[in-house]
C-alpha cells in the first residue's frame, strides 16, 4: 500500500510540475513573441492615448509576475481571453474548431494503426527479404516527403485532374449548416440527425486529408512495430515456442506480438497526440476548419490569445494521452505495476 501511495504521490507531483511548466511556457509565448498585442488590438494608426488605455485594460502595464498571477487566475476560471479576429471567447472558438481536428486525427490514427502494425510485423518476420526492403522504402518515403507536397499532389491528381474526389473543405456548400451542431464531429452529428447524404459527403471530404495524415503516421508506426517485433522474435520464449513445433501464426501473434502490443500503446498515444497538434499544414492545404487552421490564422494576424489557448490545449492533450498510455501500459504489463 505504501509503495502504491508513493507512486501515486510521485505521479501527481510529476503531472503538477508538467502542468506548471506548460502554463509558464504558454504565458511566455504571449509575452516574448515579437508582436505587440496592443497594436494588434487597436491597430497601427491608433492614437497614443488609445494605446495606453488598451494597455491599462489588458493589464500589460503591471509587473510580469502580477501578469502571470492574473493569467493563472483566469485559467482557473476557464477564461482564455477573447479573440481579436472573431470577437468570441477563445474557449468557445476552440470548442468549435477542435472537433474537426479530433475527427481527422482519430480517423487517421485508426487507419495508420490498421495498416502500419501488420506491415511492421510482416517486415520483421520477412527480415532481409524484398518484402522487408519494400516496406522500409515506403516508410522512408512517408517520413521524407513533406506533408504539404503529398497534400498538393493529392488535390492536383484526384480533384483537379481526375475529378474523383471532392475539393477542399469539410462539406460541399449544399450541406453547409444542414446538420445540427451537437458534438461538433460532423460524421457523428450526421448519424444522429439521420442525414445519410451529409454523412457520405463528410466521409468523402475526409478521405484525402485522412489518407495523407495516415500515411505519415503509418510510416512511424510500421518502423516502430518492426523494431519491437525483431526484438521479440529473438526472445527465448519465441525460440521455445518454435522448438515445440507451434505454427508460425501461433508463434507470431500469440507468443511474440502481445509483448510488442504493450510497447505500441505508447507509440499510438504519441502518434495520436502528434496528429491532434501537427495537422496544421494538412488543414491549411485542404481548408479544413480545425484547430491547426485556427492557430495559423490567429498567429498570422498577431491574435495571441487564441495562440496561447490552442498551445495550452495541445499541451494538455499530450499530458492526458501520456497518462492514459501509462495507465494502459500498467494494466497490460504487470511488471511495471
From TrEMBL:
<keyword id="KW-0472">Membrane</keyword>
<protein>
    <submittedName>
        <fullName>ABC transporter permease</fullName>
    </submittedName>
</protein>
<comment type="similarity">
    <text>Belongs to the binding-protein-dependent transport system permease family.</text>
</comment>
<keyword id="KW-0813">Transport</keyword>
<feature type="transmembrane region" description="Helical">
    <location>
        <begin position="7"/>
        <end position="29"/>
    </location>
</feature>
<keyword id="KW-1133">Transmembrane helix</keyword>
<feature type="transmembrane region" description="Helical">
    <location>
        <begin position="104"/>
        <end position="125"/>
    </location>
</feature>
<feature type="transmembrane region" description="Helical">
    <location>
        <begin position="137"/>
        <end position="162"/>
    </location>
</feature>
<feature type="transmembrane region" description="Helical">
    <location>
        <begin position="252"/>
        <end position="275"/>
    </location>
</feature>
<dbReference type="InterPro" id="IPR035906">
    <property type="entry name" value="MetI-like_sf"/>
</dbReference>
<dbReference type="Pfam" id="PF00528">
    <property type="entry name" value="BPD_transp_1"/>
</dbReference>
<dbReference type="GO" id="GO:0071916">
    <property type="term" value="F:dipeptide transmembrane transporter activity"/>
</dbReference>
<keyword id="KW-1003">Cell membrane</keyword>
<dbReference type="InterPro" id="IPR000515">
    <property type="entry name" value="MetI-like"/>
</dbReference>
<dbReference type="Pfam" id="PF19300">
    <property type="entry name" value="BPD_transp_1_N"/>
</dbReference>
<feature type="transmembrane region" description="Helical">
    <location>
        <begin position="307"/>
        <end position="329"/>
    </location>
</feature>
<keyword id="KW-0812">Transmembrane</keyword>
<dbReference type="InterPro" id="IPR045621">
    <property type="entry name" value="BPD_transp_1_N"/>
</dbReference>
<feature type="domain" description="ABC transmembrane type-1">
    <location>
        <begin position="98"/>
        <end position="329"/>
    </location>
</feature>
<dbReference type="GO" id="GO:0005886">
    <property type="term" value="C:plasma membrane"/>
</dbReference>
<feature type="transmembrane region" description="Helical">
    <location>
        <begin position="202"/>
        <end position="221"/>
    </location>
</feature>
